[in-house]
Specification:
With 91 residues, the chain is mostly helical. It is 46% helix and 11% strand. The radius of gyration is 14 Å and the shape is globular.
Length: 91
């Protein structure tokens, strides 16, 4: 999450919110950090991207998530955390 401020207003942004005119460095940074954590825990669990995607019941775009190119939904994040046996807050 990122606190984004505009003149007279601020909001918590998860990236790609539509309120932000362009993606800020913060938007890109949080996606990259989440992706790196998913990759690290996936490898610790000795899973391939395909195996994790199957266990997590979807993300065909897991590679893009791990590279920080795609936003992950909360639901997908929770499924991945369960599949790699970590608490979501660790990601």
């Amino acid at each position: 999450m990122l606190l984004v401020s505009f003149p007279g207003q601020a909001h918590l942004c998860l990236g790609g919110c539509g309120k932000c005119k362009e993606e800020t460095e913060g938007h890109l940074r949080h996606r990259k950090l989440i992706g790196e954590a998913i990759r690290r825990y996936r490898k610790q669990a000795d899973l391939t991207q395909e195996a994790l995607a199957e266990s997590a019941d979807h993300p065909e775009y897991l590679g893009e998530i791990e590279r920080g190119e795609k936003i992950i939904s909360i639901e997908a994040l929770l499924r991945m955390a369960k599949a790699i046996e970590v608490f979501p807050r660790e990601i």
